[in-house]
Structures are given as C-alpha cells and as structure tokens.
Predict the structure.
Amino acid sequence: MALLNFRKPAPAQTGPSPEMEALLRGYSIEVMPRTAEKVDDFRHYLPAGTRVYIAHIDGTPIEDMVATAARIRAEGYEPMPHFAARSIPDAATLSDWIARYQGEADVRQGLILAGGIAEPRGDFHCSMQLLETGLFDKAGFTRLHVAGHPEGNRDIDVKGDAGVMEALRWKQAFNDRTDAAMAMATQFAFESTPVIAWAERLKAEGITLPIHLGIAGPGKLQTLIKFAIACGVGNSLQVLQKRAKDVTKLLLPFEPNEIMADLATYKAAHPDSLIEAIHFFPLGGIKTNAKWAIQNGGASTEPVNGPEAAFA
C-alpha cells in the first residue's frame, strides 16, 4: 500500500511582509512648527535618522521654522525645510534663511517648491528660479528635493502636458549639474494605479529622478477629504468619496493599507522603478502615523523613556 504523503499546511504569515518592510525602509515624514510643538519627543515615535520635512506655510515666521529644524536635529533626525519660492521676496532673503538654518540646525537638505500662494511676494514664482540662484550649491547642500505631481498640478497644467514635462526635464538637467542628490517628493495619493502609471511614464520619457511618493497617514475620513480637496489631489480622491458613501465606514479612521500593499507588491516586482521611498503626510497626527508605520513593518524607535508608554 502506498504511503500517503500528508504535508503540513504552510503556516499563516504573521506580521508585515518582507515587501512592506522594504517599502517602509527609510521613509520620511512631514511636520509644521505648530504640529511639532505637540510632540513631546520625536524619539518616542520615529526611527533614528528619519528625514523630517518642515512645511513652511506662508506667514510662518522664519524663526519658528529654524527653531523647529534645530530641535529635530538635536533629537537625532535629518531636518529638510521647505523653501517656497513665492513666499521668498528676493535672493538676499533666501541667502539669509539658508545661513540661519545652517548656523542653528546644520541643515544640508531642502525641498524646493513653488509654494501654495497664488501671487509671489517678490522675485520668485517657481522652484527653478530658486535653484538657479546657485545659493544651495554654494552652501553645500547635499540633497535637494523638488515637487512631483502624479495627478497634475493646477499651476503648471494651464500650460498643458507639454509644460509639465518641460519643467520635469529642466529639473532633470539641473540634477546633472549639481553635486547634491536629487529626488521628487510628491503630493499624497490614495490609489496606486495612477501613481504607478505616472512613474512608468516618466521613466519612458527619460526622467531618472527618484520618486519619494507622498502617502496620507491614518486619519479621520472627513479630515483627509478636506485636505485632498484643498491640495488639488485628483483621481484618487474618488477612493475616499466612495468610502464616505458607506455609512459603516464613515466614522472609521482611514488607513493607507491598501495603497501601501499594492505599492509594496509592485516595487518588489519592479525593483528598478523610479519609486524609491515613501513620504508620509501625517494628517491624523505624528503619533498615529508613527504607530501605523511600526505596526506595518517600519523600523522601531529607540527606547527613550519607554516608547511603549508614548503609544499607549
């Protein structure tokens, strides 16, 4: 009689997948001075060395921005303040801001973008003009990020698709003549298909700048919809609107599990994709976002007075 070969079923996977762990490796996160004030100690929530973008909302005093950068540096993180062209009146002001950041917080990285206001305060209206000053290279910045828009940009789109690609090719050319490492940081999205298609299209067009893809962290559905509309997020907003129609889900917090799982699978299958890293917009708060990242495969925090208590 032939022996029956009974194989034990494969054990169910517990914990985050290797693909998700790889995707979350080296993620970055964004704060503002007023939101940073609510964080008792970033070391309770973020892995050591995390890049922390500091959003410069028009009207925020530069003193508050520099103080936030200094605090982030002191707690063991890499501050990357925004330099919003339309909020900077002239090259002298830009030079002064760079000097303050470097003198008080040893800032060597910056996100260079146009900014959210419609009318410029002075000489600059786009990120390319800031880069053309040469002040970032002169100051020895090691990393410069520029904005990317997977679902379009209301300012650039008035020139049509040709205008969008012209701006990207200019940034690509600048990458070839600067000593700083460059990447594109994007607005947040809620659906993987449009951003993957955008990344593949850029690569086909000869763009090689790595993409640090914006993801909205966990938060109330109403809050995310409000920010998505204000920031001009396009097609993937439908994901939130569809969820809002389901009364059973309306009061539940939104988490980026689905888009992150899709991206992790895609990145594992396409390791040469331009999508290099994840950048979180913690719309539901730093603590909530950090807890989600750790639970889903991100690096843990250093034990500083008990991070477990911080997440309790």
